[in-house]
Design a protein that fits this description.
Chain C: This is 4Fe-4S dicluster domain-containing protein. Chain C: Keywords: 4Fe-4S, Iron, Iron-sulfur, Metal-binding. The structure holds four protein chains of four kinds. Chain A folds into four domains: 31 residues; 209 residues, Rossmann fold; 169 residues, Dimethylsulfoxide Reductase, domain 2 (3-Layer(aba) Sandwich), CATH 3.40.228.10; 132 residues, Barwin-like endoglucanases (Beta Barrel). Chain A contains 23 helices and 28 strands. Chain B is globular. The two termini of chain B are 22 Å apart. In chain B, 70% of the residues lie in helices and 0% in strands. In chain B, helix 2 packs antiparallel against helix 12, helix 4 packs across helix 6 and helix 10 runs antiparallel to helix 12. Chain B has a single domain, classed as Formate dehydrogenase/DMSO reductase domain (Formate dehydrogenase/DMSO reductase fold). A two-stranded antiparallel ribbon of chain D has the order 1-4. Chain D has a two-stranded antiparallel sheet with strand order 2-3. The N and C termini of chain D lie far apart (65 Å). The chains are: A alpha/beta, B mainly alpha, C alpha+beta, D mainly alpha. Chains B and C meet through helix 5, helix 6 and helix 9 of B and strand 2, helix 2, helix 3 and strand 6 of C.
Chain lengths: 680, 415, 265, 211
């Protein structure tokens, strides 16, 4: 065919196509195609529900959004007066933790080669049964969450098996309980933060990681209305400008390890300012002075004087002590805090330190908290590791991660190695699982019945119910049910058949409507009523030798509450909430002020090595003038080896090389580390 | 068949000598290597996403945008020479106009190659036409650049048509002829389009009032910035072409364009440079004394360290002065050393300008509690540059070898 | 410079910096609400995709005079957004009642011109395809479309919540343009346990923000640039307010001698 | 070669072949453009259950609103879920094979029919369509041409009320959208109409429809 003929044909074709919709519609189709990439997940609609429950991570009342049976996200429960709808960063990641890769899918059994292999529940249960039988009388149980009523089942189970070795992980709560006990207090110690008009928190990072955080912050919200004057003064004493310090009216720098001297000085200054106190306390107070404290604690004496007069002139002052990462300072500081509240006449007062009625065990053989707190796991672990005590035949670890959370001093690994058989119940694969013989998939907090009963830091008796918003995923099972089933198998009767009925027993004990609270997710609160002032005996304090302050540079470990806890690892979204001042280039950041750095001969953003008695780890130096002199601040909660991609390869675990000493007398663990940072 | 000549000599432009095919092939290995590096980089970027570059949320613009702006300025020789040759009928320029066209073509197609990598969704690039935002300077740039690219292709075609291969083919001869007839029209269109996008490239930065380092307003955005960018292009463009010619002369060890023509180009560029420099100094003055204080910032706050030091700011201006001295004073211009120095520093100043306007402008902390941030282009970004470089060298080498790129070459190199 | 119409409803925030502990609850709930893909390594903060980012501010004094403040930074939803006019494909715009700057990612070509223009760094780029490992995609909300690689995204004041609130109002025969404050709150506002964030219609006297924004302690970030943000901050501390904008040494906080652009409400 | 070039040189008058080739090309292209290409672009899909509207409306006397209604919170219950079907279809109420299959496959297995049903007007993830706002009550203020809600719904939706088996679902292979899905220009027919603004607030702003 001739060229021109063809050209005409082509021309005709072009005109024809142009006159048809084909090209234009296809262009549009292409436009739409470029807008919906096939490999990006599509959205799924469905029945959209909002279910009320409570976070088992930190007791924050929740509204969980469930779409078509899938848990979408968690938000605060606005209808809940106790939290006023607030949401903590940790509770905000419940949904992601529920679906996390680190969830344990099926029972795991450690083989002779030390490797883990999946096994069936039938097998796992028969092992549990056999081991428990053989362990007769030599069973130990470790758990971390002291607020759950399910502890009655666990402690009862332990007791029914002829053992009393039921432990909680070390905590401020334990230290305070021991202190309260020592000075002759009855019931459990509470802090009526809601009704106080002037708070002195020593160490306790109560706006972020100490006590009933959601409630504490709801109180802050109420007492600090935006654009108006605050109705509550907050004094925070600690080594660093942390989350609490930045919103406190005054930050008083106190070097780690000198909290006792600081509180003593406050006590003596109060008495100097003619606050009535009994002879025993005056005598005690004479040991301390503001001047001395100024030197030892590094606190400005003028500031301390201001603080004291503020406490003196306040209507409802409240003083309490604690730690930032919820570990223990020993009992002395708590006794001193109690003493100060006592001289201020703040024991069993509105907005003061209150003696809450001790929780009555729901089950006949369940152990009393006062007894449980009398034993501490760190000491236990050390003794077993050193062969000073007989290792139990069987150890149950529920929702706790001692291998990660406790330092080398506690010798947890050695302890576990000495125990014939160790069983770990966990929702997520953690460092402790990797040391146990049998690892069982536990139901996540949103998959089970549970409750939060008067958690440490409460100022009244309060109670919130947790209910499953979705069926347990994979092969996970609620540990409570599991233990009940096991007890049943072994022919032990714990006095309850299932978890809901246990929780109902709690409800009845409180005269609360179980169904109603289950439905509403509301928090039952019992106004504090027993205002009778107890007579306390502070003589035990006299026998205490004031701890000598560290001459060297002290380590201050703190946590970023968004970044999870030892049982959760770092939640998927938390990576963005971990700041450059906490983790950078895969290194833990050691924050210190310029003066300290110069002392150590370090420059800003310099790679260095942090050393304690227990070892060393690489860090990145960052200057931060919000850290007091002679203190190095490092974030705890990094350097995981368990969990999933969001937790691993992120810095090192500072907790591993922190130093634990035993407090004379109480034998409680005290976290205090001298630290050195050298050029790396 | 004359075996003393390269095997492909039948294809050489009339009366021109070329090196042996082997030698040519060996030379081509260099750009080919660059090309391969570039292709790998491009593949990685397109396949895995822009995370494979050194860019981040603070430096959304980096090396690539800098290069785009630079080459488009340097490629301006094309439209400007075309304008002078075809519209203003400065006839001597016919000896270099087709070369400038090729340089321009390479600069623009190169820039577009990089842009395709630079945008996160290349496959949506055409949205610029489908759903345009008439307020956006970028829309205007996209529009003009793509259109002008077509013009450059049209300007390139005749060169190919004049290949010896098609000597006998009368149809193509006619076509070539017609192209030449209509070239003034295309030159006109080209000049029109370029004028606009060269200007709006400046506007692109001038409108960013969130970036006090590059923001201009009122008189200093229109017409000032607009013409500044245009002038910077038309002064650097011709000089860049001259530099390229000279570079090729060095490589081929032949005279390709007469010194007279080069001088003419330099003179033209020099004249433009004077106007640009005056404008630039006024602009900088206005920026320091008006824009900055109004933003609550000081001159010192705009600079830090070495990469962001004020050295570059001063260097950019000083280079312009040197350029003027070399190009505007006939006495100096006639001395090759000064002439080429002048050309070089001018291009240097323009490229530097595009760099600070892009990278430094983004590195500066605008929120007082921010820190300075640094940006380093990584292998993938340099790879894209290599891609363009390799592609350009290959194209120009082949064009030179087989097409009558330099009308003067034959008689300039008579034995 | 294009001019934006005055809206009858202008949603905005007043964030009390004296009440922010910097805990990050807002950041966490924001990500869950808006289907932001988790990031395995968010160590490089210039690559960490935060619609809402919490900055740590310092008064730059040495111990013991040093003070710290945390500043949450959502998108400012500027009255005169620098990002909107520059977008070549109208992927972002400010044209709906409420004055929220919209970002439609399926339209975005990823040129990042808007990011270069935003002085608040409120815009983020998807450097890689989003990835929800394991079963995490189960938790995707049906209300916010997922974004592929190569597009820019940013805070939208959880406008999906506004859409729902409007629907509810319509279904109950109420005026969708006069929503009560509690009918529409962003995820971060609800999350903050300290109530540091107050959210509402800046034009509506019945909403708290209306009064709060007029407080002598209220200020906006980089006001003198003329972006006219719909997000206000509050602090009783002068150094904090001064850090909110660039001031020449002699200028008084809150009252610069000259401004770059003047389009304030 | 030679003669052709001769033929070319004058290059003014057309060669002998006339308009034939042009017409052939034109017709061919029109056929392809109008029928062939649209046809191959579409993929036909079948609904999971051959639902019979007529039976439910006429025999069972159900009203549209019993299954398709706006919820309290303003969201739209477009499709009934298995549970609500099971209210009647716990056990078979007819001899229909499809009903039996529905009961066995969905009701008994607790499978959610709503998640499998192909929605003819399905909008992509980035679109938020509010049924609450597009109601007859609101539009009837000006648009008096609609008597019944059903009529009104059929502006966008297929009139399925009179079907005994669901219409075939046609999906565009390129865009993966249903052919019946409204595209933005169709939405803009109303939204970009200045006449609407003020009376309905139906602005054409991005965030009116996009999410």
């Amino acid at each position: 065919m001739q060229r021109r003929g063809f050209l005409k044909f082509a021309l005709g074709g072009t005109v024809g196509l142009a006159a048809s919709p084909a090209i234009w519609t296809t262009l549009y189709d292409l436009a739409y195609w470029t807008q919906n990439w096939g490999w990006i997940p599509r959205l799924q609609n469905g029945e959209d529900l909002s279910v009320a429950t409570v976070s088992k991570l930190d007791g924050t009342p929740l509204k969980v959004r469930v779409v078509d049976g899938r848990v979408i996200n968690t938000s605060g429960n606005k209808d809940n007066a106790y939290s006023a709808g607030g949401l903590t960063p940790l509770a905000a990641s419940e949904a992601q933790l529920l679906y996390a890769e680190s969830r344990i899918k099926r029972p795991l059994k450690r083989g002779p080669d030390g490797g883990y292999a999946y096994t069936s529940w039938e097998d796992a249960e028969s092992i549990l049964k056999k081991k428990t039988r053989n362990a007769q009388g030599s069973l130990a149980f470790l758990t971390s969450d002291s607020s759950s009523s399910l502890n009655d089942i666990f402690s009862a189970f332990t007791a029914e098996n002829g053992s009393r070795d039921f432990f909680f992980m070390p905590s401020d709560e334990q230290a305070a309980a021991v202190a309260w006990n020592t000075v002759g207090g009855s019931g459990s110690l509470g802090y009526d933060i809601a009704n106080s008009d002037c708070i002195l928190a020593v160490g306790a990072n109560f706006m972020d990681s100490w006590g009933t955080v959601a409630h504490n912050r709801a109180v802050f919200k109420e007492t600090h209305p935006t654009g108006e004057n605050a109705e509550q003064a907050i004094y925070y004493a600690g080594a660093m400008q942390n989350n609490t310090a930045v919103v406190a009216d005054t930050w008083l720098p106190v070097k780690p390890g000198t909290e006792e001297i600081f509180l003593g000085a406050v006590l003596s200054e109060l008495i100097k300012n003619n606050i009535m106190a009994d002879s025993s306390l005056s005598a005690l107070a004479s040991r301390y002075s503001i001047e001395e404290a100024g030197k030892a604690c590094g606190t400005d004496t003028e500031q301390m004087k201001k603080l004291v007069s503020a406490l003196k002139n306040a209507n409802r002052p409240l003083v309490f002590a604690g730690t930032t990462e919820g570990q223990s300072l020993g009992s002395t500081v708590h006794m001193l805090a109690i003493a100060i509240n006592a001289v201020l006449g703040r024991i069993n007062q509105d907005g003061g330190m209150v003696a809450l009625p001790e929780r009555e065990p729901l089950l006949p053989s369940a152990q009393r908290y006062s007894d449980i707190f009398a034993r501490n796991f760190v000491a236990y672990s050390m003794q077993i590791a050193n062969g000073m005590a007989n290792a139990p035949k069987l150890l149950f670890i529920n929702d706790a991660n001692p291998v990660y959370a406790l330092s080398k001093d506690a010798q947890v690994k050695e302890c576990l190695a000495k125990i014939d058989y160790t069983v770990c119940f966990a929702a997520h694969w953690n460092e402790t699982c990797a040391e146990c013989d049998l690892v069982l998939p536990a139901a996540h907090g949103l998959e089970r019945f549970d409750d939060v009963y008067t958690p440490y830091g409460s100022g009244n008796i309060n109670w919130t119910l947790a209910k499953p918003v979705t069926a347990p995923r994979y092969q996970a099972r609620p540990v409570g049910e599991l233990i009940l089933a096991l007890a049943d198998e072994l022919g032990l009767s714990l006095g309850v058949n299932d978890i809901p009925s246990l929780l109902e027993m709690r409800a009845n004990a409180l005269h609360a409507d179980f169904k109603e609270y289950l439905e509403s997710g509301d928090t039952y609160q019992e106004a504090f009523h027993d205002f009778s002032v107890p007579t306390l005996n502070f003589m035990p304090l006299h026998s205490k030798q004031a701890k000598a302050p560290l001459s060297e540079i002290a380590l201050h470990t703190y946590i970023n509450s968004a970044a999870g806890n030892p049982s959760t690892g770092i939640p998927p979204y938390a990576n963005r909430a971990i700041t450059e001042y906490q983790l950078q280039d895969g290194l833990c950041v050691a924050q210190m002020n310029k003066a300290t750095a110069q002392k150590l001969g370090l420059a800003d953003k310099q790679k260095a090595v942090l050393e304690t008695k227990n070892g060393s780890m690489p860090v990145l130096v960052r200057f931060y003038e919000g850290v007091m002199p002679d203190v190095v601040a490092v974030m705890a909660g990094l350097g995981h080896t368990g969990f999933d991609r969001f937790s691993v390869n992120k810095g090192n675990n500072i907790l591993e090389i922190t130093q634990i000493d035993m407090e004379a007398g109480s034998d409680l663990p005290v976290w205090l580390s001298a630290v050195n940072v050298v050029k790396g | 068949m004359d075996y003393s000549k390269p095997i492909d000599n039948a294809l050489f432009p009339k009366g021109c000598e070329r090196c042996s095919f082997t030698q040519f092939s060996l030379f081509m290995l260099i750009p080919t290597a660059l090309l391969i590096w570039g292709v790998i980089a491009a593949f990685v970027v397109l396949y895995q996403g822009l995370g494979t570059t050194g860019l981040d949320d603070k430096f959304g613009f980096g090396l690539w945008i800098t290069l785009d702006l630079a080459v488009i300025a340097l490629g301006a020789g094309a439209f400007f020479t075309g304008l002078l040759r075809y519209i203003l009928n400065i006839d001597e320029l016919k000896n270099i106009v087709s070369f400038t066209a090729v340089v321009g073509f390479l600069c623009y197609t190169g820039a577009m190659l990089i842009l395709v990598l630079d945008i996160g969704q290349p496959i949506r690039a055409w949205f610029g036409y489908w759903y345009p935002n008439v307020h956006s300077m970028l829309t205007e740039v996209i529009f003009c650049i793509t259109c002008y690219c077509i013009v450059l292709i049209i300007e390139y075609i005749p060169l190919i048509l004049e290949q010896r291969l098609f000597e006998k083919n009368t149809f193509i001869q006619h076509l070539a002829h017609n192209f030449h007839v209509y070239m003034p029209l295309f030159a006109g269109i080209g000049a029109f389009l370029s004028t606009f996008h060269q200007g709006s490239l400046g506007g692109m930065y001038g409108v960013l009032f969130g970036r006090p380092y590059i923001f201009r307003d009122g008189f200093f955005i229109w017409p000032w910035t607009f013409f500044l960018y245009l002038l910077s292009a038309v002064s650097a463009g011709p000089m860049f072409s001259v530099l390229m010619v000279t570079l090729m002369e060095k490589i081929t060890s032949k005279k390709l364009v007469s010194w007279k023509i080069k001088q003419l180009m330099g003179k033209i560029g020099g004249t433009m440079l004077i106007v640009y420099t005056i404008g630039k100094f006024l602009d900088s003055y206005a920026w320091v004394n008006d824009i900055l204080p109004r933003s609550g910032l000081t001159f010192e706050q705009m600079f830090t360290g070495f990469v962001y030091s004020s050295v570059w700011f001063y260097a950019e201006h000083i280079a312009l002065v040197i350029g003027i001295v070399c190009m505007a004073l006939p006495a100096l211009r006639k001395i090759p050393a000064f002439f080429y120095l002048g050309c070089f520093v001018t291009c240097f100043s323009i490229v530097l300008n595009r760099f600070v306007m892009t990278v430094q402008a983004l590195g500066i902390p605008v929120m007082p509690f921010e820190e300075w941030r640094w940006y380093w282009a990584n292998w993938a970004e340099w790879g894209a540059f290599a891609l363009v470089l390799g592609y350009a060298i290959i194209t120009i080498a082949v064009t030179y070898r087989y097409c009558p790129l330099f009308p003067q070459e034959a008689e300039l190199n008579k034995k | 410079m294009a001019h934006f119409k005055d809206f009858a409803v202008r949603y905005g925030m007043v964030i009390d910096l004296d009440k922010c502990t910097g805990c990050g609850a807002c950041m966490m709930s924001c990500q869950a609400e808006n289907n932001v893909a988790p990031q395995e390594d968010a160590g490089n903060k210039l690559r960490a995709l935060n619609w809402l980012k919490v900055y740590r501010l310092s008064n730059n004094k040495e111990y013991p005079e040093h003070e710290t403040v945390f500043l949450p930074r959502p998108c400012m939803q500027c009255g005169n957004p620098s990002c909107v006019t520059v977008c070549p494909v109208v992927a972002t715009d400010k044209n709906e009642e409420g004055g929220i700057v919209s970002q439609v990612t399926p339209r975005c070509i990823g040129c990042r011109y808007c990011m270069a223009s935003c002085p608040y760094h409120a815009r983020y780029f998807n450097w890689f395809d989003p990835y929800w490992p394991g079963d995490l995609k189960e938790a995707l909300s049906p209300d916010v479309s997922t974004r592929p690689r190569g597009v820019v995204e940013k805070c939208s004041f959880c406008h999906q919540r506004l859409m729902k609130a409007k629907d509810k109002a319509i279904a109950n025969g109420e005026d969708p343009l006069a929503l009560p404050e509690e009918a529409y709150q962003t995820a971060c506002t609800e999350a903050c346990p300290n109530g540091a964030i107050v959210f509402g219609d800046l034009n509506n006297p019945e909403h708290r923000v209306y009064e709060l924004k007029q407080s002598p302690y209220a200020f906006r970030l980089l006001e003198r640039l003329g972006t006219d943000p719909q997000v206000y901050y509050m602090s009783k501390r002068e150094w904090v307010r001064r850090l909110g904008d660039n001031y020449l040494g002699h200028e008084e906080t809150g009252s610069p001698e000259r401004v770059l652009l003047n389009n304030s409400h | 070669m030679e003669d052709k070039s001769k033929e070319v040189k004058p290059a003014k008058k057309c060669c002998g072949c006339g308009f034939g080739p042009f017409l052939v090309g034109l017709v061919l292209a029109l056929v392809i453009g109008w029928s062939v290409i649209p046809a191959i672009k579409l993929e036909e899909k079948k609904q999971p259950i051959q639902f019979n509207h007529v039976v439910h409306i006429e025999n069972a006397g159900m009203a549209c609103e019993e299954c398709h209604f706006i919820r309290e919170d303003g969201s739209f219950n477009g499709l009934p879920n298995t549970a609500s079907c099971a209210a009647c279809h716990e056990e078979a109420v007819s001899e229909s094979a499809e009903e039996k299959r529905f009961i066995d496959e969905y009701v008994k297995k607790g499978r959610e029919i709503r998640n499998e049903w192909l929605v003819y007007q399905k909008q992509p993830d980035n679109v938020f369509f509010s049924h609450a706002v597009h109601s007859l009550e609101r539009c009837a203020n000006c648009h008096t041409e609609f008597e019944t809600t059903q009529q009104f719904c059929n502006i966008c939706h297929l009139d399925v009320a009179s079907t005994t088996t669901p219409p075939v679902y046609k999906e565009n292979r390129i865009s993966t959208y249903s052919v019946n899905t409204m595209k933005m220009p169709e939405c803009e027919a109303c939204h970009a109409n200045p006449g609407h603004y003020g009376t309905t607030n139906a602005s054409n702003a991005c965030f009116v429809c996009h999410k």
